[in-house]
Design goal:
The complex is a heterodimer of chains A (172) and B (435). With 172 residues, chain A is α+β, with helices and mostly antiparallel strands. Chain A is built from six helices and six strands, in the order E-H-E-H-H-E-E-H-H-H-E-E. In chain A, 38% of the residues are buried. In chain B, the strands form four sheets. Chain B has a four-stranded parallel β-sheet, with helices on both faces. Chain B has a three-stranded parallel β-sheet with strand order 7-11-10, with helices on both faces. In chain B, strands 1-4 form a two-stranded antiparallel ribbon. Classes of the chains: A alpha+beta (172), B alpha/beta (435).
């Protein structure tokens, strides 16, 4: 993921690691294992009918692997919120779910316009959602905080007029 | 497929089955396969929703219920009628007449589910208020919903309303009462349900969660309807004067039931139809519906009026029942004894064990291997989900292959493509020879 920062833009990034999981997260990035199963899905911008399908698909896939129901719930919530974020705030993007035998690593990569101030975006209740998004019942400013609450690791990198990359790790 | 532990109130008439796969495609738990041109039901996965019965055009999957004659094995015979029964008749047939006609079939007494609706509403509210830590509470009256949760959403089992359904509450109450009143032993009293769906027949013969023996048989509304039709006209000329509870008929309608439970501190949602039920349960799992305190779930259209043992269309039946509720005179059933029993915990049910069907393997590493194999096979399959192979979808076939229950040669589309390819190769070979 370190390669993902695009040099020509002024990028900022945000890290969160669930206390106690630092070593495991570090180990995950250091080992660079190949995922066992990969699921890739396009998320069109402003299409709230499709947004959410990816996390629902992932939940069903992980149910088949016998993942604990409470962990499943966290994955479904974090994934859903991240999908909605791509649909609500960007010009569309994609969701890549990498399944390992002990964790899931989800990447959400959109086509911009980027987050100008990530720290601000992490404050519960803060939202830049437009009227259309609010009319549909989204944009309460709880998306990113909710993702963080359910993740073991969260990394966001973005900048104005650049893509936003949200990466989530949840251990089984 | 060899699991025979679970009884289900349906039967496949193999001679009638054409292997058309219509049932395979409508089964919500993917319990049906067509093998050797005949449908087979996996009894472990079946939830008795009745979809396959409704969709079969060849009369090859038929519902099972008990024959009326079994009532004669008992000294005292009580029938308990499910609310949707009263929506099956034309509007000139009154509630009184329909009820009396059932009594005339040879019962000593007839009671109805509708009598305890108010009581149910009260204990549901009480239960919700005492279990605020579990949100939302899910209705447990529909046996198909309960099975679905055991199979596909086991994490929601604690959210079920852990009390008996109204007809079982009545069974408990009347068995005791009749026994005392007539000095009969419990086993001399036959208590039978008249039910709208096979899930209730299954539940009578294979109760899950009950602490005590409940009913002695279940009759289909359709069968009873056929038997009383002739006597209805006669009774109409001489309407009986018997107790009825039209205000309580709401139990047959999932939407109206939810509205009745809804109050200042309890927010309810009503869901019917098996696809809707599954979507909602999936969202409840993710805590996206925590704003609701109570969700009424029924797998049939409009609730119990949509059950496969009814004779009338669910929308017409619903409209008639609504009319009866509106025009009916409220009569009060004395609930004091029932409340006492409820307070003592007499109606509590045993927490149900999950019956998971989703996991490919108990060991996650093996499950991943199986999933990889499934994905490898899936890429080869045409993705048409045509069911011609006898499995409900290409994914299901891939899974069946990996689990050793099917072969890739079962795919008709691939077979056709291969034969076409080999034909072309043959033709090319011929051309070469001709050249």
């Amino acid at each position: 993921m370190q390669d993902s920062a695009v040099a020509e833009f002024e990028m900022s990034e945000y890290w969160y690691i669930n206390p106690g999981w630092e070593e495991k997260v570090e180990d995950f990035f250091a080992r660079k294992r190949e995922p066992e199963v990969v699921l890739e899905l396009e998320i069109p911008g402003k299409d709230f009918n499709i947004a959410g399908k990816g996390s629902s698909e992932i939940k069903n896939l992980l149910k088949r692997l016998g993942v604990d129901s409470e962990i499943l719930r966290r994955i479904a919530v974090a994934g859903y919120e991240a999908e909605i974020n791509v649909a609500a705030h960007s010009q569309g993007g994609k969701m890549i779910s990498n399944v390992y035998d002990n964790l899931i690593y989800m990447q959400f990569i959109d086509n911009g316009p980027g987050i100008s101030n990530i720290q601000q975006a992490m404050i519960p209740g803060y939202s830049t959602a437009d009227d259309l998004v609010r009319e549909l019942g989204f944009g309460a400013g709880l998306g990113l905080p909710n993702i963080q609450k359910n993740s073991d690791a969260l990394h966001i990198s973005s900048g104005l007029n650049s893509p936003t990359i949200v990466e989530i790790i949840i251990f089984f | 497929m060899t699991e025979t532990k679970y009884f289900h109130a349906l039967q496949i008439l193999t001679d009638n089955c054409t292997g058309c796969t219509a049932c395979v495609r409508v089964c919500p738990t993917e319990a049906i396969r067509v093998r050797d041109h005949k449908a087979i039901i996996d009894s472990y996965r079946c939830v008795d929703c009745g979809n396959c019965i409704n969709v079969c055009r060849f009369h090859a999957i038929i519902p099972l219920s008990d024959p009326l004659e079994i009532i004669h094995q008992f000294k005292y015979k009580l029938a308990i009628i499910s609310s949707s029964f009263f929506g099956q008749f034309t509007e000139d047939i009154s509630y009184e007449v329909a009820k009396q006609a059932v009594l005339n079939l040879g019962f000593d007494q007839v009671a109805e589910e509708a009598a305890v609706t108010d009581f149910m509403i009260n204990i549901i509210r009480d239960y919700i208020r005492k279990n605020r830590d579990k949100r939302p509470i899910l209705s447990s009256n529909c046996p198909s919903v309960v099975r679905l949760i055991q199979l596909k959403y086991p994490s929601l089992l604690p959210n079920l309303f852990h009390q008996e359904a109204p007809m079982s509450i009545l069974t408990r109450y009347f068995r005791d009462k009749i026994s005392k009143e007539f000095g009969l032993e419990e086993k001399e009293i036959g208590i039978f349900l008249i039910v709208p769906c096979i899930a209730h027949v299954t539940a009578v013969h294979q109760p899950e969660g009950a602490y005590k023996h409940l009913q002695d048989g279940a009759f289909s509304i359709g069968m009873i309807y056929g038997k009383i039709r002739d006597s209805l006209k006669e009774l109409q000329n001489n309407p009986p004067s018997i107790e009825t509870y039209p205000k309580g008929l709401t139990w047959a309608l999932s939407g109206v039931q939810a509205e009745l439970v809804d109050c200042e501190d309890i927010r309810t949602l009503s869901v019917n139809g098996v696809e809707n039920v599954m979507e909602i349960l999936s969202r409840v799992e993710d805590h996206y519906l925590d704003q609701y305190d109570y969700i009424v779930l029924r797998t049939c259209t409009n609730g119990c009026v949509g059950g496969c043992l009814n004779v009338e269309n669910p929308f017409v039946a619903m409209s008639r029942i609504k009319k009866m509720i509106k025009e009916g005179q409220g009569r009060d059933f004395d609930f004091s004894e029932l409340y006492e029993l409820y307070q003592k915990g007499e109606f509590a049910v045993v927490p149900l064990a999950p019956r998971p069907i989703m996991e490919l393997d108990k060991d996650i590493k093996k499950a991943i291997q199986k999933m990889k194999q499934i994905n490898e096979i899936l890429i080869m399959l045409p993705g048409l989900d045509c069911s011609a192979c006898g499995s409900p979808s290409c994914y299901a076939l891939a899974e069946d292959i990996v689990l050793g229950k099917a072969s890739i040669d079962d795919c008709v589309v691939l077979l056709k493509r291969h034969s076409k390819d080999s034909e072309e190769v043959e033709n090319q070979d011929k051309d070469k020879i001709n050249d």
